[in-house]
Amino acid sequence: MLPRRSSITRVLTAAVLVGMGLWLVMAGLLGSTGSVVTTQLVTVNTVESVRSRQLTLAQSHKTPVKVQKLTHRHSNLTLEKIQSNMTLMKVNMSGLQKIIHSANKSQNSAAKTSLKVANPHPFHYLLNTQHACNDKDIFLIVYVHSAPNHHKRRSVIRQTWGSGKYYTQKIKVVFVMGRTNDGVEVQNALEYESDVYRDIVQEDFLDSYHNLTYKGIAALKWVSNYCSHAKFVLKTDDDIFVNMFTLLRHMKSLYTLKANSDSLLMCLVWYRMKVMRTGKWKVPKSEFKDDYYPTYCSGSAFIMSVNVAIAMHRVSYDVPFFWVDDFYITGLLPLKAGNIKHKQFMSTYVLDGTKLKEKFTGPQWYSYIFSHVHDLDAVQAVWAELVKLAHGIVVPDIKYAYAGQLPKVEKKILP
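Structure tokens predicted for Hexosyltransferase:
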């Protein structure tokens, strides 16, 4: 931030007062007769110059003009005294310049200090889809954490739950990633994919596990800059299956009822998760000293109102980088932003990805929304069945007997 306005005002006020003081000094020296004096040194040469102009004017009109007799009204003011006061004026002006210089130096110093941010995110786009949200009626913008070499995962998403042709509400999906070290062939293939589908957002940070926080911030920045008119935002990963039919129905209900839809952060909420000191997610005390994390969301999928996404991006510059992206994005940023409450959505998550078909094509298919994908080849078959269920084309095979219809069991005689 720049220095407070009151500080600058005090400096400028001081400068004005010094200037007024100089004027009063000169006015006092030149007298108080009320005459308008346009210069501080009236010399004989000046008087003669005025007389000469008056005579010339009179001759040009050929009419007698009375030449005004000009005199120095302050004959008692000696040249030495004027020079002395001019020296005083220079000294005071020098002091004024020092005051202004000091104020400017203080302002510049404060400005340099304010430019230091905790997490600047100094990355640039390698690939961007600026016009993905040109449609002004976007209901849900989905950003998917992906990687440059995950082409097959993105292709499956585009053909299944990420395709807008299945829904009445308008959705848009973009895939967010960093740069690759896998060679120029991977990048060239990604650029071709981007030209075809126009749904790739790539920044120039290295796409790695410990840089997932950069990926999350990149996505929030993109939503804030290019899709801020959407109603809701879904974050997910490219190995997550989404029952978009149930999700959109639920989100439409929330939007219609205005149930905290402007400050929504809905997810599988983790409370007092223990900080891991060993293994893949090891976090040393030097990076996070507490033994438990504050409340945050599972990073597999979470839904938020677009206002929340914009607010979290805005405060991300003030929150120091922390590589555990789930906790940073959905824990630290909401904590900093304030007025964002986590809403539990646990019942819609299938934590065992091996049960994908069982859960999403069974009699309770409409109760589940998110699941990890263990078998990428099975996703399209499950999706095709789910589409039929959602449109009422097929009825799920209920394996449970109704009351009064229990199967008969043959009696066996024990030996």
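The radius of gyration is 38 Å.
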